[in-house]
Specification:
The protein is of the alpha/beta class and 297 residues long. Helix content is 45%, strand content 12%. Strand 3 and strand 4 form a beta hairpin. The longest helix has 21 residues.
Length: 297
């Protein structure tokens, strides 16, 4: 495959302007890349190489054989350049994630339909965990262990508006920090920066319903966990009709907004399997892909 064909392949995932931005960003940083020969388009070719590797999940040797490099370069050099470019990609991705205003979030959510009129959401919050392949055995009690992945992992949290534009990204951090615990840790930031908002989330964020006074968390109400009876011997194991209607509206609104994690996993296959390199580089990949996701909107 020629590098012209690589470019066309990458443009299936991102806009031409986005790809050009990433290349120019890297060139301006002037990283120290390895290579026996460094022709004029060397930086661009290395950027294309790393992006294609993230998109296809091919190994270094297979990808080197697959590509028609117009110059000599070793596997060792490709591995070094991969580890060197990813932190720069993260910096680029961070620049694409900016926190908007409550008025912008309200405007973005106007077209959500009937459910919007019932609960008036502004923002959405969700988390995801990615698998890590550890070279040593890891106990399930280790901070890196993810019960969701059934392996070591890294966890990320996003805050997004009704257009799926990511407003804030946190991570990676330990999967042992549950979503409710995350809200406790970030309580001051949330109340300072998101005052007056209504945030749609799942039941894992139930903690945010009461302690947070300046922000409203729209979380489905759980069914009573134990069988209780009132004075009239009425069964209270089911939610009342008003609560059921509210839960339905929340779930409907959540379903309308596509999770960005589904998008990045679809377009970057490396996030669909276990990450073999340094976990810090996985963080770089997530920041990059979320930045690309925002650039597509």
């Amino acid at each position: 495959m020629s590098f012209a064909q690589v470019r066309q392949n990458l443009l299936e995932t991102m806009k031409p302007t986005t790809l050009m931005e990433i290349v120019r960003f890297v060139e301006q940083k002037k990283p120290v890349l390895w290579g026996e020969q460094k022709p004029r388009a060397f930086f661009k070719q290395q950027v294309y190489f790393v992006l294609l590797k993230l998109k296809t999940e091919m190994g270094f040797q297979k990808l080197k054989t697959y590509l028609a490099f117009p110059h000599q370069i070793s596997i060792c050099s490709l591995e070094h350049n991969f580890a060197t470019l990813l932190p720069l990609f993260e910096l680029w991705g961070r620049e694409k994630i900016t926190l908007g205003s409550i008025q912008e979030w309200k405007t973005a959510s106007r077209n959500l339909g009937e459910e919007n009129e019932k609960i008036h959401p502004n923002l959405w919050m969700d988390s995801v965990e990615f698998r890590i392949k550890d070279r040593h055995s890891v106990s399930c009690h280790d901070p890196s262990w993810s019960y969701k992945c059934n392996s070591p992992g890294r966890k990320f949290m996003v805050l997004m508006d009704a257009r799926c534009q990511i407003q804030k990204l946190w991570g990676g951090y330990s999967p042992k920090i549950y979503d409710g615990h995350f809200l406790k840790i970030q309580r001051d930031w949330i109340e300072e920066n998101l005052t007056g908002t209504k945030i749609v989330a799942d039941q894992h964020f139930d903690w945010g319903r009461n302690p947070l006074k300046k922000v409203t968390f729209l979380v489905p109400i759980k069914n009573p966990s134990k069988r209780k009876w009132n004075e009239d011997l009425e069964d209270l194991t089911q939610l009342i009709k008003e609560q059921q209607t509210r839960n339905k509206a929340i779930r409907s609104v959540r379903a309308r907004v596509e999770s960005p994690f589904g998008w990045i996993k679809t377009h970057f296959q490396t996030l669909n399997s276990s990450w073999y390199s340094d976990p810090a580089l996985l963080d770089c990949v997530v920041w990059l892909t979320i930045g690309i996701h925002n650039s597509q909107l």
